[in-house]
Amino acid sequence: MKNNMSATEVLTYLISLLEINLSELVSADHKNGYVLGSWDANIECLEVISFWERAKEYGLNYNPQIKYKIK
Question: pLDDT per position in the chain (71 positions), as tens?
Fold first, then answer.
């Protein structure tokens, strides 16, 4: 990964990373305290990024709590 990324590059990378993390957490066999806490932290990050004026342009056009609902 390069060190001189633009803000847009950083945010799109972060969205992708958080979505990967959430997919893994949702599919975890055991929903223990660590999984639930990690899920909550990742959801909060996506919710904050959704305030970015270009978030929808980069795929963040959904409610993270609904898309990555944990059972």
Answer: 678 999 999 999 999 999 999 999 999 999 999 999 999 999 999 999 999 999 999 999 999 999 999 97
Contacts by 48-54, CB closer than 8 A, 24 or more apart: 49/11, 49/14, 49/15, 49/18, 52/11, 54/8, 54/11
As given in the structure block, the two tokens for residue 27 are 């599919």
Please give the Cα distance from 70 to 40 (Å, whole number): 10
- Whole-model pTM above 0.85? yes
Whole-number Å distance between alpha carbons of 2 and 14: 14
User: In sequence order, what are the residues at sequence separation of 6 or more whose Cβ sits closer than 8 angstroms to the Cβ of residue 43?
Assistant: 22, 64, 65, 68
